[in-house]
Amino acid sequence: MPVTNAVHDLETRTLTITAEFAAPPQRIWQIYADPRQLEKIWGPPEFPATFVDHDFRPGGRVTYYMTGPGGEKYAGYWDMLTIDEPYSFTFTDGFADDDLQPNDDMPVSENTYTFTERSGGTVATYHSVYATAEGLQQVLDMGVIEGASSAIGQIDAFLAA
């Protein structure tokens, strides 16, 4: 599994996951920039994702839903802030309702995904800052570390296929 570290801090309201891949940053970037590739790795294997909108540019919105084993759907969105291809992008990440509109009752985070070249491969840093410590605790209780680690863990197999 490519995840090498996962650290959260309620005081600073942060969650940082680090992973390493045997592919250059340009290849890792392509996964996130292409919704059909992103569907292969976003969400844990038992909750595959479907990306509905993928306006992957500053000011754009990405919407998706994950489908659980019993057919239940969990929606989310990204409001894209910055793009520095192929090294990083920032976005606001939140939960969405059935119409893919932001669910204001759920936690929101500001995210920076960074891809750094190392020895021909990539060190990926997934950094999230939550609006409140309670929001971070809520997603921790929902299994965000396990879910994200499981999703990120699919990248190597996807690249090998």
UniProtKB/TrEMBL annotation:
Highest taxon above the source species: Bacteria
Q: What CDD domains does the annotation carry?
A: SRPBCC_CalC_Aha1-like
Q: Which Gene3D superfamilies match?
A: 3.30.530.20
Q: Which InterPro entries match?
A: ASHA1/2-like_C, START-like_dom_sf
Pfam families for the chain: AHSA1 (PF08327)
Q: Which residues form the Activator of Hsp90 ATPase homologue 1/2-like C-terminal domain?
A: 22-159
Family statement drawn from the similarity comment of this UniProt entry: Belongs to the AHA1 family.
Q: What is this protein called?
A: Activator of Hsp90 ATPase homologue 1/2-like C-terminal domain-containing protein
Organism in which the protein naturally occurs? Gordonia rhizosphera NBRC 16068
